Amino acid sequence: MRLEGKVALVTGSAQGIGRAIALRLAAEGADIIIDDRADDSRAEEVLAKVKESGRRGCVIAGDLGNIADDRRMIAEGVRQMGKIDILVNNAGVEKNASFWDVTEADYDFVLDINLKGTFFATQSFVNHLRETKRPGKIINLSSVHEELPFPHFTSYCASKGGLKMMTRNLAIELAPLGITINNIAPGAIETPINAKLLNSPDLLAALLGNIPMKRLGKPEDVAGIAAFLASSDSDYMTGTTLFVDGGLLWNYSEQ
Question: Which are the catalytic amino acids?
Answer without folding.
Answer: 156
